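Handout, page 2. Input:
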Amino acid sequence: MPTDGPRRPIPWRRLAGASLRTLVAILGAHLVLVGLFAATYAIPDAPIVRHVSADLAAGRLADVYPDNPLGGRLDGYTQCLSTTSGVLPTSSTTSLVDRMTMVPRGPGECEKLGAYFGNLATDGPFADPDRGEAFGYIRYWSGYSIVARPLLALGGIVAAQTGSAILLVGALAGLAHGVLRRAGGLAAAALVGTYVLTSNVTTTPLAYTMAVSESVALAGAALVLLVPRRWVVPAAAAAASAFVFVDLLTVPSTSWALTVFAVGLRAWSAWAAGRRTASPAGAVLTAAAGGAVAWCAGYGVSWASRWVYATAYVGVDGVVDDVLRTARFRIDGDTTFTGAAIELSDVPLGSLGKNLGYWAMTVGLWAAVVIVVALVVTVVLRRTDLRAGVAARGGWTTVAALAAPALLVVVWYEFLRNHSQIHAFFTHRSLGAATAILVAALVIGWRGAPRPASARAAGADRRDASTPDGAAARP
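Output:
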């Protein structure tokens, strides 16, 4: 029987090395973050309570869900809640380890904070006045405290919002730098510019925990673009581990999609800076698939470790019960444990529809419409140049491969159906990430120009004749 030739052997040693590096990256990121978390929980509570109390008196924490200047609403509830993370009664003897396992926190209703802090100052009951239970939230690491507690202790809510804004700008700049290095300035502008305009991310510092999550999502993708090639997949896992540590299940699909896009872009960049002997579409998809799996591994390990730590607070049975109830609620909207009814659309792509509906209430969707119309007009006017550029950079299959990570946003929406629908007022921002990936994929396929550091250092005097805009021929 004729064959197409000998099969390529499975590179077990290479896979083992990549797996080991990925495990090291996940554990390393986790240990660093746990250390920072411990350090921030060791900060005295008194200056935090003093500054936040002054913010309450000045009316800077007055509204649970204030209007977003760009449409929709802000999550003032979580912002108020975050100011109480780790805060205990003044005479508490709870150890640092116990504080980290229980993650003490107060109410999210801003109007309750004054009385809550007053009770803590007088060694009053450390309990929710409505439920009569001790405050402790084991479902999330609440790693935003790494940023929040030091800033709240320094200057209250204004310092926290300002600091998160600086962090966000730095993350955006880092991502732009990474894309610039791998695909050129037009690609960087396409990805970062589209994301800024369509996701309403610029208002997240007004509810600063959201800005922290966005910053870590962006920084994770930037990390993937900047590390040495053999650390690309481990970096994707570390990015996910860091994201789940700081996030409160706000925009995981943003982190997932952008990180996987960055992994795929690394594969395209390596091809574009080389001999270009075949289409890179297969290599891009393979790399992206590996990045998607690595991201899930990093996310899963860090998420599961939170529950492992929590067994010291509520026991194994308590953790198992909470995990099962939360999973049923987040995925299917099962509220039998609360008695509250949740209106959940179970039609195919119902979660996507809910988020699109909320997105339409914001400036972001209309910015996306303008960008798409501008692209269509440009494509029509320069279709000959477009065809030549795409052909020189791998063809339309490569554009599709680069764009594929945008689908991960939809996958996440449909998997966590309930959460994605009842919290569409912040989960919709991931649609901006999907739009940015689609726009960037087209721009890279048309005008992408990788400039490896070695080529820049040598004066970039070796060029690939198939690259009209002067991409370096070899790394």
